[in-house]
């Protein structure tokens, strides 16, 4: 009985701490990607049969966060093109990740960046981020639809402020000169982002 009571008290305390953290928002400041709680995937139509999906594993986003006026915040993102992961089932035959990351008809091993220019608040926890996306050495406008999932001044496990976002976007890859195998492989690339962010000076 004592063991059950102790467990219940510990569970109740953990819940209380989590709720307290959730209701106390993260402060103004510069935040960066928490790589263990973030993902960036992309997909496109493949022969009209499915949506081929892959991801990047090295994404460094920096957010100058201003919660009182989120439209004045700024965002910059750097993605390593060599971190593309396709989960190709026969890596002993073809290094497909390297082919996508370095091939001249694909990402050409050139840096991928996104820099915000304008942020619009569209709802209580939604907005759009308009900016410039660069890859393959070309730069063009791109827009992300963003959902602000919430923030906390002190994460109950990590002990630091955290902010959480989900985002989606769509681009035409042909605008960046990536027109390989269109229309068999779709021109529209759908981007999906899930991220938690921590203070920029935090050490993992």
From TrEMBL:
<feature type="domain" description="Lipid/polyisoprenoid-binding YceI-like">
    <location>
        <begin position="30"/>
        <end position="198"/>
    </location>
</feature>
<dbReference type="InterPro" id="IPR036761">
    <property type="entry name" value="TTHA0802/YceI-like_sf"/>
</dbReference>
<dbReference type="Pfam" id="PF04264">
    <property type="entry name" value="YceI"/>
</dbReference>
<keyword id="KW-0732">Signal</keyword>
<protein>
    <recommendedName>
        <fullName>Lipid/polyisoprenoid-binding YceI-like domain-containing protein</fullName>
    </recommendedName>
</protein>
<dbReference type="InterPro" id="IPR007372">
    <property type="entry name" value="Lipid/polyisoprenoid-bd_YceI"/>
</dbReference>
<feature type="signal peptide">
    <location>
        <begin position="1"/>
        <end position="20"/>
    </location>
</feature>
């Amino acid at each position: 009985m004592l063991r059950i009571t102790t467990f219940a008290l510990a569970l109740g305390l953990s819940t209380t701490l989590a709720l307290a953290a959730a209701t106390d928002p993260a402060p103004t400041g510069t935040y960066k990607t928490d790589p263990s709680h973030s993902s960036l995937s992309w997909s496109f139509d493949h022969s009209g049969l499915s949506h081929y999906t892959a991801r990047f594993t090295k994404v460094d986003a920096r957010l100058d966060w201003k919660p009182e006026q989120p439209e004045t915040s700024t965002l910059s993102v750097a993605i390593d093109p060599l971190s593309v992961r396709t989960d190709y089932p026969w890596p002993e035959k073809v290094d497909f990740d390297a082919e996508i990351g370095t091939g001249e008809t694909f990402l050409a091993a050139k840096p991928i960046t996104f820099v915000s220019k304008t942020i619009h608040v569209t709802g209580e926890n939604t907005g759009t981020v308009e900016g410039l996306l660069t890859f393959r050495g070309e730069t063009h406008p791109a827009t992300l639809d963003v959902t602000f999932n919430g923030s906390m001044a002190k994460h109950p496990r990590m002990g630091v402020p955290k902010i959480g976002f989900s985002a989606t976007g769509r681009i035409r890859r042909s605008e960046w000169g990536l027109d390989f195998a269109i229309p068999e492989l779709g021109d529209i690339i759908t981007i999906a982002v899930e991220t938690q962010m921590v203070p920029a000076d935090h050490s993992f």
